[in-house]
Specification:
It is a single chain. By secondary structure, the chain is of the alpha+beta class. Among the domains are: about 220 residues, PurM-like C-terminal domain (Phosphoribosyl-aminoimidazole Synthetase, Chain A, domain 2), CATH 3.90.650; about 210 residues, Phosphoribosyl-aminoimidazole Synthetase, Chain A, domain 2. The strands form five sheets. Strands 8-10-7-11-9-12-13 form a seven-stranded mixed sheet. Helix 22 runs antiparallel to helix 25. The longest helix has 21 residues. The termini are far apart.
Length: about 750
């Protein structure tokens, strides 16, 4: 090997991988070729440690038009000639280095993935993880990320419908920032990210190219952080106003027949945009970097090809239509330059003027080595899972009030209004259910349909049982959509893990994907797109295994949408699903079987032990039962039991509905803490008029779903069987101000 270790570290290639490149080329690569390989063989672009595992995920369904890896985003057919386009991606490492710009450009990148397919972006969601806000650096990261998401998204005029946020010490210094975008397109006008047709032209549109973002894919996203590394130059800088012009111009262009395809410049910049486009089209490409407009002086071909400057699009123009296309971009005051053309050679040829600086087979660039490691359950995990909950003293009735208030004020349960009030969630005037509920709901203008969106994931569950954590991430997202009255249709995911070269992390990755695949098959919800973010470690500390699921569903009659808030005095409250003292799939109910991995266990006892549990068959039946009851107009509110358990779910429905509750059957035997705060899955709290109880019983019996009467809505207090009795105002204050207290 004639190359230095330092040079390989810059592009995140191992010596073995470099030698493989030399073997396949039959020579040493040039500097630019090494940069191409480093980027396209990176974990971010090449999925070296995850591609083989991802094959387990089901990707087919009757609504699926575009599945994972086929294009920039996945697409599903919702009828009436309309298509929903959806994708979620991570910007974890950039946000750790420069939180505002890292998060802002994460929003910009995911939006480009949507409109490059000819779809108008109509909604944004995000899934965030941070270290405890008692730490000043974590507060800095938190404020920067939330500011970047709001600052960029608000300028684009796309409603940000919220999402989720979770806090744990393992995310200190390494936040998780996952952004989801949903778009809608005319099925007949969908654009593909493909380059084909010898002689067709490559046109670069938008911002000039600078040095920002170089090594973003290969360096920042494909290795762990080292304390001595200065990574700030690898973070891109965004311009949302320029992106807004790109959205409108590209959507107008998509209505013409002047182009072959369109591709945004994201990770690895021009390298991935050009090479991946011609690969999809079965072609080759020739680019002259001297024709690329530049923001910085004296940029080398290497820097031009690897720059991740934002707000740039690559358009494959049919030869003879270039003047029309450039005139369209001129109208939108966007710069456009022809930088190359499509060939039939199967080669990626990069020139600077007449000098060839890289010449490699396209297929070679996109054929990284794929790794499958031996997966073995670590011994430390068995020890955590075998923890005996009976060794923890049960709650006494007099402790329940203070415990509920502590849980409601904890940052993982408390209101996230401080976050989402910084987002514009009503622009476009399609928003029906605003942030803060189980799922966001938007109307589809001109139809009776509505769209429901949710993001979910619990890294603590995955830490304790990666397989069940993966299962629960999917089913909870589906449950949240069902609570809004929607039929779940498709999944996009973002898999956030530590260093996959470590045995315990690889085990977590493997098992989480298996769990997600199992629940997707059981619920018949295909995965249509996604992203993997690995090497999320700081100073040797890995984050929790954090698979995040984004899910979209359709409400076929928008007048039948449902919310979590209790509505009217005298309405009855029922629990669909397993009783609090019986853990589905477990015999540990009497000794706290639903407390494993719970918020209660960590907040009150400072323990992260045990394991979650779930009965997938029961979950499916509970969801179908709830959806039928909502569609029939029986149910006024529906709210799933998740973090904090049954008591927290009831309290949240009271807070949002501004009305009290008197419980009659909230404790059903077993431990008191398990009944109130155990996080047993497959449960939904619903409210309905007193006269509709018998109808709900018939639906529950048909689906073989356990049904329990919990109590009645009314008054200004929240009381449960004499163990909880608090003024609604006190509960609202604890929940509503919990996050703000930590932020000072």
């Amino acid at each position: 090997m004639t190359i230095s270790r330092e040079a390989l570290d810059k592009v995140a290639l191992s010596e073995k991988e470099y030698n493989l490149i030399v073997q396949r080329l039959g020579r040493e690569p040039t500097e630019v070729e090494l940069g191409l390989f480093g980027s396209l063989w990176s974990e971010h672009c090449g999925y070296k440690h995850s591609k083989l595992l991802l094959k387990a995920l089901p990707t087919w369904g009757k609504h699926v038009l575009v599945g994972p890896g086929e294009e920039n985003a996945g697409a599903i057919d919702i009828g009436d000639g309309e298509v929903l386009v959806m994708k979620m991606e991570s910007h974890n490492h950039p946000s750790a280095v420069e939180p505002y710009q890292g998060a802002a450009t994460g929003v910009g990148g995911i939006v480009r993935d949507i409109f490059t397919m000819g779809a108008r972006p109509i909604a944004l969601l995000n899934s965030l993880r941070f270290g405890p806000l008692t730490d000043s650096h974590n507060r800095y990261l938190f404020n920067g990320v939330v500011g970047g998401i709001g600052g960029y998204g608000n300028c684009l005029g796309i409603p940000n419908m919220g999402g989720e946020a979770f806090f744990a010490s393992c995310y200190s210094g390494n936040p998780v920032v996952n952004a989801l975008c949903l778009g809608i397109a005319d099925k007949a006008k969908m654009v593909r990210a493909r380059a084909s047709g010898k002689g067709n032209l490559l046109m670069l549109v938008g911002a000039e190219t600078g040095r920002d973002g170089i090594y973003g894919a290969s360096g920042l996203a494909s290795r762990t952080f080292e304390e001595e590394q200065e990574l700030r130059p690898t973070v891109q800088v965004g311009n949302p106003f320029l992106e807004k012009l790109l959205i409108e111009a590209c959507l107008e262009l998509a209505q013409t027949d002047w182009i072959v395809g369109m591709q945004d410049l994201g990770a690895a910049g021009l390298t991935s945009a050009a090479v991946e486009s011609v690969a999809r089209g079965g072609a080759g490409v020739e680019i002259d970097v001297g024709k690329v407009p530049r923001r910085d002086e004296n940029m080398t071909p290497y820097e031009v090809m690897l720059s991740e400057s934002q707000e740039r699009m690559l358009v494959i123009v049919k030869r003879g239509h270039e003047d029309k296309v450039q005139a369209l971009f001129d109208h939108w005051e966007l710069r456009s330059d022809i930088i190359g053309e499509v060939t039939d050679s199967g080669l990626a040829v990069i020139k600077e003027g007449k000098e060839v600086v890289a010449e490699v087979l396209v297929n070679l660039l996109l054929s990284p080595p794929l790794y499958r490691r031996r997966s073995k359950k670590p011994a430390w995990l068995t020890e955590l899972q075998s923890f005996d909950m009976a060794t923890i003293p049960d709650l006494r009735p007099r402790q329940c009030n203070s415990t509920l208030l502590r849980l409601l004020a904890s940052p993982n349960i408390a209101s996230k209004e401080w976050i989402y009030r910084q987002y514009d969630h009503q622009v476009m005037n399609n928003s029906v259910v605003l942030p803060g509920g189980d799922a966001a709901v938007l109307r589809m203008k001109g139809t009776r349909k509505g769209i429901s969106l949710a993001t979910d994931g619990n890294g603590r569950y995955c830490y304790l049982d990666p397989f069940l954590g993966g299962v629960i991430a999917v089913v909870e997202a589906a449950r949240n959509l069902v609570c809004s009255g929607a039929e779940p249709l498709a999944v996009t995911d973002c898999l956030n893990f530590g260093n996959p070269e470590k045995d315990d992390v690889y085990y977590q990755l493997t098992e989480s994907i298996k769990g997600m695949a199992r629940s997707c098959r059981e619920l018949r919800i295909p995965v249509i797109s996604g992203n993997v973010s690995l090497y999320n470690e700081t100073k040797g500390q890995a984050i929790y295994p954090t698979p995040v699921v984004g899910m979209v569903g359709v409400i076929y009659d928008i007048n039948r949408y449902c919310t979590m808030s209790f509505k009217d005095e005298g309405d009855l409250v029922f629990l669909l699903g397993a009783a609090p003292s019986r853990s589905a799939g477990s015999s540990e109910g009497a000794s706290g079987g639903a407390l494993g991995g719970s918020e209660y266990l960590e907040v009150v006892h400072h323990l992260i032990k045990g394991k979650p549990s779930i009965d997938l068959d029961l979950e499916r039946r509970v969801q179908r039962c709830c959806l039928e009851a909502i569609r029939r107009g029986l149910v006024k509110s529906a709210h799933d039991c998740s973090d904090g358990g049954l008591a927290v779910a009831i309290a949240e429905s009271c807070i949002v509905g501004d009305i009290g509750f008197k419980g009659e059957g909230c404790r059903m035997g077993g431990r008191l803490d398990d009944s109130l705060f155990g996080e047993l899955q497959s449960r939904i709290v619903v409210s309905l008029p007193a006269g509709s109880g018998a109808k709900l019983e018939k639906i529950a019996a048909r689906w073989q779903v356990p049904l329990a009467l919990l109590g009645k809505i009314g008054g200004r207090r929240v009381s449960m069987e004499g163990c909880i009795d608090l003024p609604l105002a006190k509960i609202r204050k604890a929940w509503g101000k919990g996050l703000e207290r930590l932020l000072g």
